[in-house]
């Protein structure tokens, strides 16, 4: 039911001690419109004292990249910014994939949503 997360060098994924769940539903409302419902939940199993501790534990590549270039005074802010940038990239990739799925449901000749795949 749930697709496993695979680590990629450019898109680090959380370590196994975090739960990830995703639900997607596409419902055709009319020949010209459909409704997409999508929910993604990423829930840490543990609590962390700081964003740096969170990143060090679950996203070590992100933490190492930031820790190597940030001074201790601004490490927390830099880690938070790097995680936000990572989340933005992940969200953009996710919606690009959703767009590709939706476009695959449209018949290019009639511009109508296909009811049978």
Topology:
Elements: E1 18-30, E2 33-44, H1 51-58, H2 60-67, H3 75-104, E3 106-107, E4 112-113
Antiparallel strand pairs: 1-2, 3-4
Helix pairs in contact: 1-2, 2-3
What is the string of helix and strand elements?
EEHHHEE
* Number of individual domains: 1
Distance between the termini: 20 Å
Structural class: alpha+beta
Output the radius of gyration: 19 Å
Biggest sheet, spatial arrangement of strands: 1-2
Largest sheet geometry: 2 strands, antiparallel
Task: Tell me how many strands there are.
Answer: 4
Q: Give the uncertain stretches in residue-range form.
A: 1-7
How large is the count of helical segments? 3
| Overall body shape | elongated
What portion of residues is helical?
25-40%
pLDDT averaged over residues: 77
Classify the beta-strand content into a percent band: 15-25%
Description:
- With 117 residues, the chain is an alpha+beta fold.
- The protein has one domain.
- It is 39% helix and 25% strand.
- The chain has helices at 51-58, 60-67, 75-104; strands spanning 18-30, 33-44, 106-107, 112-113.
- The strands form 2 sheets. The protein has a two-stranded antiparallel ribbon. Strands 3-4 form a two-stranded antiparallel ribbon.
- The longest helix has 30 residues, at 75-104.
- The chain is elongated.
- The model is unreliable at 1-7 (pLDDT under 50).
